[in-house]
TrEMBL record:
It comes from Streptomyces racemochromogenes. Keywords: FAD, Flavoprotein, Oxidoreductase. Transmembrane segments: none annotated. Residues 1-166 form the FAD-binding PCMH-type domain. This is FAD binding domain-containing protein. InterPro entries: CO_DH_flav_C_dom_sf (IPR036683), Diverse_Substr_Oxidored (IPR051312), FAD-bd_PCMH (IPR016166), FAD-bd_PCMH-like_sf (IPR036318), FAD-bd_PCMH_sub1 (IPR016167), FAD-bd_PCMH_sub2 (IPR016169), Mopterin_DH_FAD-bd (IPR002346). Gene3D superfamilies: 3.30.465.10, CO dehydrogenase flavoprotein, C-terminal domain, Uridine Diphospho-n-acetylenolpyruvylglucosamine Reductase, domain 2. SUPFAM superfamilies: CO dehydrogenase flavoprotein C-terminal domain-like, FAD-binding/transporter-associated domain-like. It comes from the Bacteria. The keyword Flavoprotein applies. The keyword Flavoprotein applies. Pfam families: FAD_binding_5.
């Protein structure tokens, strides 16, 4: 079925509880081809124009769940939410970026989803649409952590993201040169109004991890009324702090793989903060 509005899509899902919504299908088709999923029916979301753009709303951007990675990677979007645009450009080869969507990245919730650490760092909120025109909002982190799941007949309609007008960075490390799945990634944003640093590490756990103590510690060192510079030693310590929080020891013996991952996370966090502070 190919509905042309959110209301039609919700009605179709309510009428066919076993149906699976599909937008770009990049993750869905991979699961089908691998024999992991056999949907009884599909509800295509590609014709719903209301979720393929964005609008401004009370200091936030209300992003349609149908926004493709390719669209988010363009300069006008990058001027709005730079870290999310950078994540979209890193999402894979052109065929993936042209088809894959923001809502699909969230609903699939793959640990390596590039948009997820950025959305976690931005403390984005999902606008969930349901039967009878109902709407509810949940933090994206709650859905990714399984604390609040989509109910039958519900869809992710929009993503509300604060417009911070401040530096933000996305970086990722892959297992090979060029585009690829993240071994580790980081979304980092500065929030001068709240004198805060928000950081989320992706790909190292089933959901993005927020090193809250590291955020609070480094925010207390920044001269928010001055040049916001930090000594190299503080940047180094921040990276180590984040890495220790997000890649903890597993028992008394620390494997070479864990040590390498921890070093990777430390470097990403240090570089992301350094770039944000000098932007």
């Amino acid at each position: 079925m190919l509905p042309v509005s959110l209301d039609e899509a919700v009605a179709a899902l309510a009428a066919m509880p076993a149906a699976v919504p599909v937008a770009g299908g990049t993750d869905l088709m991979a699961a089908v081809n691998a024999g992991l999923l056999r949907p009884a029916a599909l509800v295509g979301l590609g014709r719903i124009s209301e979720i393929r753009g964005w609008q401004y709303q009370d200091g936030h951007a209300l992003l349609g769940a149908g926004l493709t990675h390719a669209r988010m990677g363009r300069p006008d979007f990058a001027a709005l939410i730079p870290a999310l645009a950078a994540a979209a450009r890193a999402a894979g080869p052109p065929q993936i970026r042209n088809a894959g969507t923001l809502g699909g990245n969230i609903a699939t919730a793959a640990p390596t989803g590039d948009a997820l650490p950025v959305l976690a760092a931005l403390e984005a909120v999902l606008v969930i649409v349901g039967p009878g025109g109902s709407q509810r909002e949940i933090p994206v982190s709650h859905l990714l952590a399984g604390r609040d799941m989509l109910r039958p007949g519900e869809l992710i309609g929009f993503v509300r993201v604060p417009l911070l007008h401040a530096p933000q960075v996305f970086l990722k490390a892959t297992g090979r040169t060029g585009p690829g799945r993240a071994v580790a990634s980081v979304g980092l944003v500065l929030d001068p109004a709240r004198r805060g640093v928000r950081c989320a590490i992706g790909a190292v756990a089933p959901m993005p991890l927020r090193p809250l103590e590291a955020e609070q510690w480094v925010a207390s060192l920044i001269d928010w009324d001055g040049d916001r510079s930090l000594a190299p030693e503080a940047l180094e310590a921040f990276g180590e702090y984040v890495a220790a929080a997000c890649v903890p020891d597993q028992g008394q013996q620390v494997s070479a793989g864990v040590l390498h991952l921890r070093r990777t996370v430390a470097v990403l966090a240090r570089r992301a903060l350094g770039r944000a502070l000098t932007s």
